[in-house]
Amino acid sequence: MDELTIIAENLSEADKLFTDSWQLRRAHLADLADYLRRKLKESGEEEGDAEGEQVLTSLYGEFSERLRERTELVGHPELLRIVALYTRMELCKTLAESDPEKGIALWEKPDPVIAYFQNPYAGKVLQSITEVLGSGEAVDAEDYSDACEGVSDGRYDFCVLPVESARDGVMSRFVQMIDRYDLFTVLICHLEITEEEYIRFALLSASPACLAGADHLQLKVVTGEEQLWELLFAAGQLGATLEGCRPTPGDGESQSYQLTLGVENADLAAFAYYLGMGWSRSTVNGFYRQITLSSEPGQEHYL
Fold first, then answer.
1. Which has the closest alpha carbon to 203: 139, 290, 295, 145?
2. Fewer CB in a 10 Å sphere around the end CB: N or C, the chain?
3. Which residues of 125-135 are buried (b: 16+ CB within 10 A; e: fewer)?
4. Residues 192, 196: Cα–Cα separation, whole Å
5. DSSP assignments along 11-73, one per residue
6. What are the tens digits of pLDDT across the range 212-268?
């Protein structure tokens, strides 16, 4: 038997013991993690790039098939699915131990250019954004489309868009604009106008870079063979909390969702591995922090 088959056999035997089996599984999963890293290195790819992610996904898929052939749980599909889910989560934790910064790229460019379209709250929001960034040059865009397009083609580093209000809820026009220009949320400014009225602005970039203190993850998920409950269960097990789930237009055969996860206490590196190896149809739309502002002077506070 080759090395991958032996690892699958060992894990299958661990499942049959039921006594301290998860401790045994972790030891065998460490062997699997070493195998994946070695094969990735032999392929000449890196874990952090798209080609490396494809190699990892392919290797893990091959392993999963061999494990499925050896398990005695084949006649119990739901139990088999749970075991497979735990297997992937534990493997991702093991992989993350050697790459704790995976999926985290902090914004470091000084004096960024921020495009905005004039509105009654632009000045206050821009002032707070530059305080968070440490610096920044504000540029008045022709309209919101120009601001988004400018970020997409590299003329601006960031743009500011309203995305939600107490009166309108989620502003679909601007959310669609974010999708159209393939932008990523970096910061959310929650402006409290009165006790019952608020408006939220998003600071957007052309890459998923994040600011220090980011504690929210925005994720688009398209379900298929993988089910939404599996991702939510894994997210919870890895320390993330669900803060929002909104259905979005799908392709007719599958359902699409926009998820907002609180990840302040999450194992982000393990979750990044989980998404890459188990959810090829997921897209990270933002890794951001949120600040709350008041319309009254001197009432700002940062979360």
1. 290
2. N
3. bbebbbebbee
4. 8
5. HHHHHHH-SSHHHHHHHHHHHHHHHHHHHHHHHT--TTSHHHHHHHHHHHHHHHHHHHHH-TT
6. 888 999 998 888 767 888 889 889 989 999 999 888 876 666 788 889 999 999 998
